[in-house]
Structure formats: C-alpha cells, structure tokens
C-alpha cells in the first residue's frame, strides 16, 4: 500500500488543484480508499481514479505506474500538460484511460 500512497501523493504534489478536490488526499491516512475521487476494489486496492472536469493543471508523475490495480483513469476536461509517463505501461489492468479533451485514447 505504501507505493500506492506514494504514487497518489506524487500526483497531488505535481497537480495544481484550484477547486481543492484533492484536499482529502492525506498521506497520513494509510488507506486511500477513503479519499475523494478514488474507488477501490474488494481488496482495498485503487481501481478507479476520477479527476475529470476539475480545472486541474500540471503533469502526471512517473509514480502513477505504481497504481498496478488501476482499471480506469479519468482525467479529461482538465489542463494537464507534459509527457505521458512511460510507467503508464506498468498498468496492465487499465481498461480505460480518458484524455484531457474527453475522448478515449486508450481502451481495451
């Protein structure tokens, strides 16, 4: 769970969040399943992250590749920039990745 919390903290740190939608992401709470915009599976692993339409800016950190149980990542309608990290390839269970303009650019 430590790598998961570290990955989510890196994401929170690299993003500018003018609407404070990530304010519940508190690394002192070991279980991110209680954080807003996070959905976990039956094993308490992060399975979905829904950050769409929140005016978030910034870039996606390489640590996102540590969210290995992630099934869906919704980032559209934000102003994210920078490169898509190569570590996204570590997310073998990822079924849906929604881009920044509301079109699916990856789906299995």
TrEMBL record:
Superkingdom of source: Eukaryota
Membrane topology, as annotated: Single-pass membrane protein
A Pfam family of this chain: LRR_1
A Gene Ontology molecular function term of the record: transmembrane receptor protein serine/threonine kinase activity
Record's subcellular location: Membrane
InterPro entries given in the database record: Leu-rich_rpt, LRR_dom_sf, LRR_N_plant-typ
One term under GO cellular component: plasma membrane
Domain Leucine-rich repeat-containing N-terminal plant-type: residue ranges: 5-41
Protein name: Leucine-rich repeat-containing N-terminal plant-type domain-containing protein
């Amino acid at each position: 769970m430590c790598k998961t919390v570290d990955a989510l903290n890196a994401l929170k740190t690299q993003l500018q969040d003018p609407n404070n939608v990530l304010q519940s992401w508190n690394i002192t709470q070991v279980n991110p399943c209680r954080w807003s915009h996070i959905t976990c599976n039956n094993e308490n692993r992060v399975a979905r992250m829904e950050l769409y339409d929140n005016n978030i800016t910034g870039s996606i950190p390489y640590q996102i590749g540590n969210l290995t149980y992630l099934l869906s990542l919704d980032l559209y309608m934000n102003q994210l920039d920078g490169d898509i990290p190569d570590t996204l390839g570590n997310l073998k269970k990822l079924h849906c990745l929604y881009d920044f303009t509301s079109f699916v650019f990856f789906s299995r």
